[in-house]
Amino acid sequence: MNFIKNKIISKFEKNTNLLGWILVFPSFLIIASVVFYPIIRTMWLSFTSYSLAYPWRTQFIGLKNYIDFFTSFNFWATIGRTAYFTVISTGIEIILGIAIAYLINLHLKGWKILRTIVIIPWAVPTVVNAIMWKWIYNAEYGALNGLLQSLNIIDKYQTWLSKPWTAMNLVILADVWKCTPFVVLIISASLATISEDLYEAADIDGASGIQVFSYITLPLLKPAVMVALVIRTVEAFKAFDIIYVLTRGGPANGTQIISYKAYLESFSFLNMGRGSAISFIVSIFILILSLVYIRILYTEDV
Asked: In this model, does residue 165 exceed pLDDT 50?
């Protein structure tokens, strides 16, 4: 028995690669079943007419789902709304995140309180955040109407979510309130790594505050900004829960972005083939955006 055991151990010692593969194989099976299989299955469904209502009628239709979407005006309108939501919300979050993080980093009076307060919105679950803002925007008892009327900005209560353009911007406001703290945390962590010697040298050279921020702080924040930008772009592009709770894509599809459209195709219209196609389109757009950001912001010093 010992002879066989020693023989096996000796074989593994001579072939460490084989031992490594054996140890990794169980993890690979788990990853394959949890990640790779759903991806492959979804890709296959995107090439079919599979419907939950009539699964027995499923046919392989090739690229028809993709062609239908890319030749549809409504689909491109949805892409436009998604792009608007992503660019505006992410842009505001990055700007506010840098400003708030920089303010905290100055260690002015009350900076610890500000740092604590900033974290609160991020700690609120997205669905809870959406419900809270839905109450704020309510046309009958919403806090927004009450505040604006008390300040004599409006003379009567408004139905804020009844107009497409207004509704989209108010959804963006809710998203910015929730996600800006995430950017603040990333930028604050990066600011803490910047050496004070650089600021002291700039002060000796007589650099102004704007010059210090423009030529020292901002360039050194580039890696952190890249991380925050990529993560928030991906999350904003595939946003769903805040749209679902606040507006359900309305009014008149004014807040229907691509992730919500995928939900409608899959679970409202029960057309899993079309829903799977949209999911892959979302993935492709996110991949392209991430590569563009990395290409623009990457430097050899990162």
From this structure: yes
Q: Are 174 and 27 members of one domain?
A: no
**Token duo for residue 280:** 């892959």
Strand-pairing partners, residue 60, are 48
Q: Assign residue 231 the CATH number of its domain.
A: 1.10.3720.10
Cβ neighbors of 181 (< 8 A, separation 6 or more) are: 97, 118, 119, 120, 121, 122
Q: Which pLDDT tens digit goes with each residue over 237-281?
A: 889 999 999 999 988 889 999 999 999 998 889 999 999 999 888
Q: How far is CA 214 from CA 106, 217, 219, in A?
A: 16, 6, 7
pLDDT in tens, 93-118: 999 999 999 888 887 787 888 888 88
- Distance CA(279)–CA(68), nearest Å, equals 14
pTM over 0.70: yes
Q: Is 194 left (phi over 0), alpha (psi -120 to 50) or beta?
A: beta
Same domain, 134 and 23: no
Give me the domain span that covers residue 165.
Answer: 73-297
**DSSP for 171-201?**
HHHHHHHHHHHHHHHHHHHHHTTS-HHHHHH
- Taking a C-beta distance cutoff of 8 angstroms, is the pair 59, 202 a contact? no
